[in-house]
Design brief:
The structure holds two protein chains of two kinds.
Chain A (H helix, E strand, L loop, with lengths): L13 H8 L1 H20 L4 H29 L1
Helix pairs in contact in A: 1-3, 2-3
Chain B lengths: L1 H8 L18 E3 L7 E2 H22 L7 H22 L1 H4 L3 H16 L15 H32 L6 H51 L3 H43 L5
Antiparallel strand pairs in B: 1-2
Helix pairs in contact in B: 1-7, 3-5, 3-8, 5-8, 6-7, 6-8, 7-8
The chains are: A mainly alpha, B mainly alpha.
């Protein structure tokens, strides 16, 4: 490292991208679970059905987060 | 996790022995060069299959009218798959014939996922892309078959690609998306979800234990040891988390398979 270089970034900037890829699905899962809780509180009798639907939705969203991970694997 | 014992051997190396993608492409150990070449992951898969079949067959053979604890546990799991996954989505009449298939998928995926945290196996049998792909193709064949049987090939494609009640200009954009979904996105999403989850889980757990090994055993100094203990706690937490993920992914795979097959059937108006 030169004396002039005060800060140096080692590694690959795309790592930041993989991190950011977790952000959107995180928001999505938050909304899905939050809404499912809300609906369960309003109508506790359909809790089982809502849970199933919630998990299906969460699985769809989870896939988007995993795409970032797959991109990381492919880049290796 | 496998890197813990490896790190013992590689103690002379500087730095922790971190897991990498090469863990999922292990060298072949048996029948090298033939189409039947077996590597570590395939071996884990075979062992897990044999254990699962033996345990389940013995349980079934010894089934009694008044179940013991173990039998009750297995029955609870099978009942759960049938009632809470299949019948809840499809209903008992339509779902009946899919009970064996979905149960097989659930149990196999669950046991294979659990291999990732069993000491000695240390890698999920579903952590290479082929196994999830095989299950996804099975589901793919089944939902096409269900659709073709119910509507005929033309009817099924019309139902899926040109859904009724949509103004016609929308078809220009809707039809390609639906076709892509039907042919590619469904099987690939099933595959990638399971595969990537297992790979990510293995990397997380293995990283935790690799750092534990490095800081707690190979390094000196009290502060560093505390760091190592924290990594150990992290490793234990993630091991438990992986158990949860193993069950959750099996559940998600089974329920999505059921939903996809169910969507091929005509909806009762």
């Amino acid at each position: 490292m030169d004396i002039i270089t005060l800060a140096e970034v080692a590694g690959n900037i795309s790592l930041i991208g993989y991190g950011i890829a977790a952000l959107g699905p995180g928001l999505g899962i938050g909304i899905v679970v939050g809404k499912a809780l809300e609906s369960t509180a309003r109508q506790p009798e359909v809790a089982g059905r809502l849970q199933t639907l919630m998990l299906i939705g969460a699985a769809m969203i989870e896939l988007l987060g995993l795409l970032g991970f797959v991109a990381f694997m492919l880049a290796m | 996790m496998g890197s813990v014992s490896d790190a013992m051997l590689l103690a002379a190396e500087s730095g922790p022995h971190l897991p990498s993608v090469s863990d999922f492409l292990p060298p072949e150990i048996l029948f090298e060069g033939t189409p039947f070449a077996i590597n570590r992951i395939i071996l884990v898969r075979l062992v897990a299959t044999v254990i699962m079949l033996t345990v389940l067959i013995i349980t079934a053979r010894r089934a009694k009218v008044i179940p013991g604890r173990w039998q009750a546990a297995v029955e609870w799991l099978l009942d759960y798959i049938r009632d809470n996954i299949i019948y809840q989505v499809m209903g008992p009449i339509r779902g009946r014939r899919y009970v064996p298939m979905i149960t097989t998928i659930f149990m196999t995926v669950f046991i294979f996922n659990l291999c990732g945290i069993i000491p000695g196996m240390n890698i999920a049998a579903t952590a290479s892309v082929v196994m999830p792909l095989a299950f996804a193709l099975w589901v793919f064949v089944q939902y096409w078959r269900a659709g073709i049987k119910e509507h005929g090939l033309g009817g099924f494609l019309k139902e899926e690609l040109l859904p009724a009640g949509v103004p016609w200009p929308i078809y220009i954009i809707l039809t390609p998306v639906q076709l892509l979904e039907l042919v590619l996105i469904r099987p690939i999403s099933l595959t990638v979800r399971l595969f990537a989850n297992m790979v990510a889980g293995h990397l997380l757990v293995a990283t935790c234990y690799a750092f534990t090994q490095f800081y707690l055993i190979e390094s000196a100094g009290a502060a560093v040891k505390v760091g190592g203990a924290l990594w150990l706690c992290g490793g234990l937490v993630f091991t438990c988390f992986e158990m949860f993920v193993a069950a959750l992914q099996a559940y998600v795979f089974a329920i999505l398979a059921t939903v996809y097959i169910n969507q091929s059937y005509p909806e009762a108006e």
